[in-house]
């Protein structure tokens, strides 16, 4: 359980922050950029939820919780020392990916196959979900880059990859199962 008695600590005033293992790094480090972008993604999901109802809202709520798990995973370096921690280290699991894939399969059955690229837009919910998709892709790129220089849980990268696909299909569901998708017309304004 997290207990926050005071919101400001002043420990980051010199441009450093603490990671989950207690070590301190620059706030502009690639690890902080990675989990910071996951936090930004979570905020965009919160904005999308303002327009969501029913199953989509319930699924987005679960995604928000997963994104906190992912942020906790990314802020904890030294995966090889997980067993030495005095408390269990939170890592993303394949089960979280399995859930996304199951939801993706159901959404894919509900929409017609694509015959054109889709422009972000349509309904308000679809537009917000497209924004979520692009922030998820950025979080994925940063996490992949982080994985080239430091040890990370590869399940987190895989989760972000599925999640961006999830947002894409969910945007189509939000556009009346794809009927209100805004299609790209190549060269339309030449």
TrEMBL record:
UniProtKB keywords: ATP-binding, Cobalamin biosynthesis, Nucleotide-binding, Transferase
BP-aspect Gene Ontology terms: cobalamin biosynthetic process
Alphabetized GO MF terms: ATP binding; corrinoid adenosyltransferase activity
Signal peptide: none
InterPro entries on file: CblAdoTrfase-like, CblAdoTrfase-like_sf, PduO-typ
Domain of life from the UniProt record: Bacteria
Pathway assigned in UniProt: Cofactor biosynthesis; adenosylcobalamin biosynthesis; adenosylcobalamin from cob(II)yrinate a,c-diamide: step 2/7
E.C. numbers: 2.5.1.17
The keyword Nucleus is assigned to this record: no
Residue span(s) of domain Cobalamin adenosyltransferase-like: 7-173
PANTHER family: CORRINOID ADENOSYLTRANSFERASE (PTHR12213), CORRINOID ADENOSYLTRANSFERASE MMAB (PTHR12213:SF0)
Protein's recorded name: Corrinoid adenosyltransferase
Organism ancestry: Bacteria, Pseudomonadati, Pseudomonadota, Alphaproteobacteria, Rhodobacterales
């Amino acid at each position: 359980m997290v207990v926050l008695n005071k919101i400001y600590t002043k420990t980051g005033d010199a441009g450093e922050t603490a990671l989950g293992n207690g070590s301190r790094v620059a706030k502009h480090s690639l690890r902080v950029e990675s989990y910071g972008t996951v936090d930004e993604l979570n905020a965009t999901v919160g904005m999308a939820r303002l327009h969501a109802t029913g199953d989509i809202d319930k699924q987005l709520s679960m995604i928000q919780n997963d994104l906190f798990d992912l942020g906790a995973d990314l802020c904890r370096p030294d995966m090889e020392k997980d067993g030495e921690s005095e408390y269990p280290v939170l890592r993303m699991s394949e089960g979280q990916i399995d859930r996304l894939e199951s939801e993706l399969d159901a959404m894919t059955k509900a929409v017609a196959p694509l015959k054109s690229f889709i422009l972000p837009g349509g309904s308000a919910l679809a537009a917000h979900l497209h924004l979520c998709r692009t922030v998820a892709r950025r979080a994925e790129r940063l996490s992949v880059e982080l994985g080239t220089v430091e040890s990370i849980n590869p399940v987190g990268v895989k989760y972000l990859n599925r999640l961006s696909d999830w947002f894409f299909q969910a945007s189509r569901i939000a556009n009346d199962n794809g009927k209100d998708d805004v299609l790209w017309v190549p060269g339309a304004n030449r």
